[in-house]
Amino acid sequence: MQLLLPPSETKRSGGGSAFQAELLVEHAVLGATRTRVREALEELSRDADAAARALKLGVKSRHELAHNLELGTSGVMPAIERYTGVLYDALFAVTLDVAARQWMQDHVAVQSALFGLLSADDPIPAYRLSAGTRLPALGASLKQVWRSAHTGVDWAARGWILDLRSQDYVELAPLPDGAGDALLVAQRGPGGQVRALNHFNKAAKGDLVRRLALAQPDIADRADFVAWAADAGLEVHADGPTLTLVTELGAPRSGAVAAR
């Protein structure tokens, strides 16, 4: 199986050695587009005012523009550690053991607006770019550019895909029909009714990825996933075209998905 995650707006700063684009997964397929998007982002970021507007940066986050002008020199760290925010805080990758990290390297991918499809341990620099940002030098939307580039990805080779991406990032690289299933997160209320979660769905997804990395199950399709979830004490419904993970009363806390 493959878990496909969204990135996050926020990133950790710092890192080790310099960025090397050729080390990223799918370099042969996505390398040219990565260079094209990077150059367009760098050009935009040289005009601080225009970049702040395009990237929707407030006064407190405007310093993040510097990341976009230091992509080759600011240092790299694994993508799964670079991203922060609710989902990645719940995943808490730095605390996982070697076996769990290796499982994530083999089974977890991230959809980046700057780099396209990444593996969990791909070494990337800090940057600021969202799926909906317009880069004038690109001559087309990120959606158009990345959709075209990802048609060359061999999705079938990745096995069954559990898609945890938000819609903006789904649109950068839609999965072929039959490649996998999207996962929604919902909460059961006091009267038993189920409603979709917004902010807290990210914590539930992060916790789910962590559980899978620790358990390292052999999952080949949606039926296997639903069976594993039931054994793990999670409520997952597969009644329609998408899977739904249902949490119990109260939003997930500290990244923990409530068991049934």
The total strand number stands at 10
User: With helices defined by DSSP (H or I, 4 residues minimum), what is the helix count?
Assistant: 10
Strand proportion, as a percent range, falls in 15-25%
Count of structural domains: 1
The global form is: globular
Largest sheet: 8 strands, mixed
Radius of gyration, CA atoms, in whole angstroms: 18 Å
Low-confidence stretches: 251-260
Helix and strand composition category: alpha/beta
Q: What's the end-to-end separation, in Å? A: 24 Å
Q: What share of the residues lie within helices?
A: 25-40%
Question: What do the pLDDT scores average to?
Answer: 91
> How do the helices and strands follow one another from N- to C-terminus?
EHHHEHHHEEEHEHEEHHEE
Topology (elements, then pairings):
Elements: E1 2-5, H1 27-45, H2 48-54, H3 65-68, E2 77-78, H4 79-82, H5 86-91, H6 98-107, E3 108-112, E4 116-119, E5 123-124, H7 142-150, E6 161-163, H8 167-170, E7 180-188, E8 194-196, H9 199-215, H10 222-231, E9 235-237, E10 243-247
Parallel strand pairs: 1-3, 1-6, 6-7, 7-10
Antiparallel strand pairs: 2-5, 3-4, 7-8, 9-10
Give structural attributes.
35% helix, alpha/beta, globular, eight-stranded mixed sheet, single chain, 260 residues, disordered C terminus, two-stranded antiparallel sheet
